[in-house]
Design the sequence.
DNA sequence: TTTATATATGATAATATTTTCATATAATCA
DNA sequence: TGATTATATGAAAATATTATCATATATAAA
C-alpha cells in the first residue's frame, strides 16, 4: 500500500509534471503557454495539470477562456530545498546505472 | 533529458527503495535483516541497495560475510523534511485519481 | 577444500506508467 | 446561434519500470 510520501515522490518523478512545476516556480502561466514552452502534447499537459491540482501543488484561476496556473508557495519552498540539496549528489545520480540505463 | 533532480525523484519514487530508506532512518541493518523486515525478494533488494549506494543515499561496511547498510545523514535530514511537509498534503495525495487509480 | 551462508549480476517476463487518439466541454466572438 | 479557441476526459496503444529467474561471487566455517 502506498502512503502519502510514496505518492508525493510519484507525483514529482514524472518528467512532464516536474517540468511544469519548474516553469511555474517564478511565474504564473496558462495551459497554452505551458504547452508552447514545454512542448508537452495538449492532452498530456491537461492530465498532468489535473494531477498537480488534485495534489494542491499548483492552483488555478480563470481568465476569460484561459486557465492560469500558479504554484502553491509551500510547494515551491520544498522544491527549492530539494533542488539545493540534490546538487550535492548530482554527479552520483547521473552515474547510477539503475536510474539511467533505461 | 533527465537532470539530477528528476533522477532524485525517480530514486525515491520506488516503493522498495523508499521503504529501505525508511528502515535505515534510525538504525543500520544488513541485507538479510532488510529482506526479512521488508519482505523484499533477495535479488530485488540487492538491485535497489546498489541504486541507493550509487546515489550515495546510503553507505555500507563489511562485517564478516554480512554487509551492513546505513543512511547518509544528509539524506535522512532531507527525507525528514519531506515527510514533515507531505503530511500537509496527505489527504489530497491520497485522493488524486491519476496517482492512485493504477 | 568442500559446503553453507550472504549477497550480487544480468537477461527476460510481468506489470505499471505514459502517450496517443478520438472526442467532449466551456467560454468568447462573429 | 454557429464557429473558433482553449482546455478536459477516457480508453487503448506504446513504452518504461519492476519482478522473477538462473546463476555468480565472496566469505566463513566445517
Sequence:
Amino acid at each position: 500500500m502506498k502512503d502519502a510520501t510514496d505518492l508525493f515522490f510519484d507525483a514529482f518523478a514524472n518528467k512532464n509534471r516536474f517540468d511544469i512545476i519548474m516553469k511555474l516556480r517564478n511565474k504564473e502561466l496558462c495551459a497554452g503557454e505551458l504547452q508552447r514552452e514545454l512542448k508537452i502534447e495538449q492532452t498530456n499537459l491537461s492530465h498532468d495539470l489535473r494531477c498537480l491540482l488534485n495534489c494542491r501543488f499548483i492552483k488555478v484561476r480563470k481568465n476569460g477562456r484561459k486557465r492560469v496556473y500558479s504554484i502553491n508557495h509551500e510547494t515551491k519552498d520544498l522544491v527549492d530545498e530539494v533542488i539545493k540539496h540534490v546538487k550535492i549528489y548530482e554527479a552520483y545520480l547521473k552515474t547510477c546505472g539503475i536510474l539511467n540505463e533505461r
